[in-house]
Amino acid sequence: MAAIRVDELCKSYGSVRAVDGMDFRVERGELFGFLGPNGAGKTTTIRALTGQIAPDGGDVRVLGCDPTAEPIETRRRVGILPEQGSPPSFLTPREYLEFVGSVRDLEPEYVAERIDRWTDRLGFGGKLDTLHTDLSRGQQQKVMIAQAFLHEPDAVLIDEPLANLDPLVQEQVKRFLVAYAADDNAVFVSTHNIDVAESICTRVGIVADGRMVTERSLAKGGEDADADADADADPLLEVFLREVTDADARDLPSSAHDRIEGKAGDSERDPRLEATGR
To answer: Which residues form the ABC transporter domain (predicted)?
Structure first.
């Protein structure tokens, strides 16, 4: 049974069809990248997966739980890292992580050990007893990463995990996510950044107009899993541009902005891509 399963998910806000028949699976051992332009339905899908909204139609299961009918159980068992999430301003990191541990029925000794481990991994030990109002956005993001993995969940739902982190911590987090998925866990990462998806994901799904338009398997390091058999396999960026034909240039993922400028049509390639072989 897939750790994360979405079947024909639909959700509308008034006359706007935010998600229109979304389908995908994430198995244990996978690091699945959820790619798409702004307005593609990514955030709505994540909210359905975490029980924040009820779908209009379709079926969603996370570790066998129905997030709509069992929101508390889903959040207890699953690790969740929301985009731009922040811990309560009136608590310190230690107090917040201890609270998260108690909600998830973890023993205090276990929580203390996990706090020490994440303090060492992300380097915020000196801030454990500082109110969150006095922490930078990057430091708060480290705390939010720690809470998502505090109970070592079998499935994790992550929205833009590297936001506000410095390059060194970004690299540490990417390596951790790869290793965590490889340890028979399901890791779902929603991102605008194609470079991030290429570097860590084993499989990616590209969404547009509320639907999954294509999925692609990647080898470790972001290389096409079938590259040895197919030397002409298109880079992920080109697949994205081809599939998301309705995306406005300002809504392209951040790495596309860096690599492409002045694209006049679907068939025109940036000469820098030709020069680099991408």
So the answer is: 4-234
